[in-house]
Amino acid sequence: MACSGLLSNSFIANKCFRPRRHHKLAVPYPRSFSSSRVHLAQNLGISMSMEENGAAKQGLDVSRKKLPHVLTVAGSDSGAGAGIQADLKACAARGVYCSTVITAVTAQNTVGVQGVNIVPDEFVAQQLKSVLSDMEVDVVKTGMLPSIEIVRVLQQSLKEFPVRAVVVDPVMVSTSGDVLADPSILARFREELLMMADIVTPNLKETSTLLGGMRLETVDDMRRAAKLLHSMGPRSVLVKGGDLPESFDAVDVFFDGEEYHELHSPRVKTRNTHGTGCTLASCIAAELAKGSSMLSAVKLAKRYVETALEYSKDIILGNGAQGPFDHFLRLKHNTSTGGTFSGNELFLYAVTDSGMNEKWERPMEVAVKEAIEGGATIIQLREKDAETRKFIETAKACLKICHPYKVPLLINDRIDVALASDADGVHVGQSDMPARVARILLGPDKVIGVSCKTVEQAHQAWLDGADYIGCGGVYPTSTKANNSTVGLDGLKTVCLASKLPVVAIGGINASNAITVLGIGPPNLKGVAVVSTVFARSSVVGETRKLHSMLTEAVLKAN
Ligand SMILES: Cc1ncc(COP(=O)(O)OP(=O)(O)O)c(N)n1
Ligand SMILES: Cc1nc(C(=O)O)sc1CCOP(=O)(O)O
Ligand SMILES: [Mg+2]
């Protein structure tokens, strides 16, 4: 439809800048949506001057960026594992704005659904109008639509305010088996909602219900079902086979009217699956809003859900059979510092050396355990020659040893290994990855230490978001080649200038530890050692000796 310059600005704002949806267009779903009004206007053949003119009159900045926007029309889950709450989290996790129209409020937890209060259809209509008339929604995702009236209201709203795509998750029964939609809406679903859907995402139970009780036992059955559902109107169908018996992996069948795709993913063994359907559909909607093609959106959404399930498989929330999962992949972040690193952890800092452990035929895990039993308060894995895969495995094994003692485990240099093993943090030097970049990659809760020999470096470490600095070499060392020394004076100067806690390193042993800690500045929190702890046969014995010296130094200072 061409827009004439005679049309009013409000018409332009409401209609012209939304690409109209035409049902059953033969063209594939656009790969990339233009996101700015200007670009859309160009796509639709509207002259820039008219756009600018209209925008100027409305006080809009035509160059502003538009957020991809999903509107979810669904029920609230008080337990926040599914429904509106899952949709909000999924969209946020995928970087997409999500507005909400609530169709029902459920009293729900991990055990089941204790109550449902349906929102009056006029009020659902009012919510829809409020959002759709104002906020440039890209994609509508539907979840729990508990009454015929609400389905009708939605259908009318979408006629009045067309959006780029509609994702229909035909929620009828919750994962705990509770019925969430009046069975009489089935017919309406089939006649109206499926017609409007760009994709419908039923699980096996919902597929069977939509198809009048069809038995679904094999992937071939799912293919047949996808075709039948497709004939009811949606542009694409994703039949989710998570509940398919006797399959090693989870198989979903995608059908777009022409091609079938079997999408396989490993089955994640977990009770925390509440909300997977809502999340998958929201994530598809979010990816469509960002500009993905339908098949890419489905693949991205599946991968995201798999990752979130895997990440959350051990978390415990609620007493019921089905727990929620963590959309932000963070609950499992099991830092022994709990994101509150104080610096006191630096008291006796044991830094490993594979050469020294090999000499004594000591597996890394044994060395780490002995150091902790001797009194080490923080461990750094400094494995210069380790192969990446082996390093990750070792780090994971050492984390299992450290965490029961609440001792943080950091990784030397290798941010990738820290990320892959979910270690508590990293230590980087002046020629390693900048702490500023490591902070972005690791997030706010991981511990980052930086080696500093000067006041300027210490200041920069603080600016970059580090948690502590390592200052040395205090004395000459044979552990690190060509390491320049700063001496006790250099250490003191850096400590006095540093806003961060400091650990001294380089040539420190049980004989000089009292002198080092005795230099005074309160932010000098401890000593880091390699050979003193790991160069001899008894790690536990050497660590204990050092620990008692450090304790003596503290007692002396007080
Ligand atoms: C606690 C602590 N302080 C300093 C260092 C040295 O780090 P860096 O300068 O990056 O040298 P390498 O250890 O990577 O050789 C450290 N590892 N730990
Ligand atoms: C890894 C390292 N960094 C240093 C620095 O000065 O930044 S000194 C050093 C080696 C410390 O080993 P030892 O305790 O055996 O002397
Ligand atoms: Mg380094």
UniProtKB/TrEMBL annotation:
Gene Ontology biological process terms, A to Z: thiamine biosynthetic process
NCBIfam families assigned: HMP-P_kinase, thiE
Coiled-coil residue windows: none
The record, for InterPro entries, names:
Aldolase_TIM (IPR013785), HMP/HMP-P_kinase_dom (IPR004399), PM/HMP-P_kinase-1 (IPR013749), Ribokinase-like (IPR029056), ThiamineP_synth_sf (IPR036206), ThiamineP_synth_TenI (IPR022998), TMP_synthase (IPR034291)
Q: What does this protein do?
A: Essential for thiamine biosynthesis. Bifunctional enzyme that catalyzes the phosphorylation of hydroxymethylpyrimidine phosphate (HMP-P) to HMP-PP and condenses 4-methyl-5-(beta-hydroxyethyl)thiazole monophosphate (THZ-P) and 2-methyl-4-amino-5-hydroxymethyl pyrimidine pyrophosphate (HMP-PP) to form thiamine monophosphate (TMP).
Q: The Pyridoxamine kinase/Phosphomethylpyrimidine kinase domain covers which part of the protein?
A: 77-316
Q: Which GO terms describe its molecular function?
A: ATP binding; hydroxymethylpyrimidine kinase activity; metal ion binding; phosphomethylpyrimidine kinase activity; thiamine-phosphate diphosphorylase activity
Q: Which residues form the Thiamine phosphate synthase/TenI domain?
A: 348-532
Q: Name one Pfam family in it.
A: Phos_pyr_kin
Q: Which SUPFAM superfamilies does the protein's record reference?
A: Ribokinase-like, Thiamin phosphate synthase
> Organism's domain of life?
Eukaryota
Keywords in alphabetical order: ATP-binding, Chloroplast, Kinase, Magnesium, Metal-binding, Multifunctional enzyme, Nucleotide-binding, Plastid, Thiamine biosynthesis, Transferase, Transit peptide
Protein location: Plastid, Chloroplast
The UniProt entry's sequence similarity note says: Belongs to the thiamine-phosphate synthase family.
Its recorded name reads: Thiamine phosphate synthase
Q: What pathway does the UniProt record associate with this protein?
A: Cofactor biosynthesis; thiamine diphosphate biosynthesis; 4-amino-2-methyl-5-diphosphomethylpyrimidine from 5-amino-1-(5-phospho-D-ribosyl)imidazole: step 2/3; Cofactor biosynthesis; thiamine diphosphate biosynthesis; thiamine phosphate from 4-amino-2-methyl-5-diphosphomethylpyrimidine and 4-methyl-5-(2-phosphoethyl)-thiazole: step 1/1
Gene Ontology CC entries for this record: chloroplast
Q: Which cofactor does it need?
A: Mg(2+)
State the reactions this protein catalyses.
4-methyl-5-(2-phosphooxyethyl)-thiazole + 4-amino-2-methyl-5-(diphosphooxymethyl)pyrimidine + H(+) = thiamine phosphate + diphosphate; 2-[(2R,5Z)-2-carboxy-4-methylthiazol-5(2H)-ylidene]ethyl phosphate + 4-amino-2-methyl-5-(diphosphooxymethyl)pyrimidine + 2 H(+) = thiamine phosphate + CO2 + diphosphate; 2-(2-carboxy-4-methylthiazol-5-yl)ethyl phosphate + 4-amino-2-methyl-5-(diphosphooxymethyl)pyrimidine + 2 H(+) = thiamine phosphate + CO2 + diphosphate; 4-amino-5-hydroxymethyl-2-methylpyrimidine + ATP = 4-amino-2-methyl-5-(phosphooxymethyl)pyrimidine + ADP + H(+)
